[in-house]
Amino acid sequence: MTEEKKNPLGPAGERLRLNIARLREARGLTKKELSERVAELGRSIPPLGISRVEAGTRRVDADDLVALALALRVSVNALLLPTVGEGSEEVELTERVTLSAADAWQWADGDKPHSKAEVDEHGDLLRYRLDSRPAWDRDPIRKIYNQALEGAARNSAIGNQTAEFSKEEGQWVLRTPTGFEIWRGPRPEGAE
Predict the structure, then answer these.
(1) CB–CB of 12/94 below 8 Å?
(2) What average pLDDT score do residues 106-112 get?
């Protein structure tokens, strides 16, 4: 009787092992050659280890994952997600999360969350994009995110009232007719 693994590979691990084998073979590399490429990158995975990864009997940790992606000259996402087939095909990311292949790639690329929050459609999307990008790449996203939040706050605070922009102490301010400040900041589009 075989003993069941305590923590068997999930759907991402299964896809990873298959993608490594497929890409290695597509590049005409033996397991030894892939092992040598990985070693040149500073990570040791012997040929037997490559065999075990492809068989699903050896797990791949984060350092292995990066080294294998570099050695195979693909992104980490190309090892974790499907790269063949149709974008509409279902992809199991975990035992409980399934997306279309196209949605899975958009999630992994930081373009959109895997599910919509019930907050507001623009804020959730933009917050995800903002949190999924490095600091040096956030400013354009932050600007869009702040504009979306300002618009939502303006609309909910105003209700059926009208509001007007004015300039106070060098900043633009949006106030309701009763004087309630809704927004303050640099000159928004449309302010006169």
Answers:
(1) yes
(2) 90
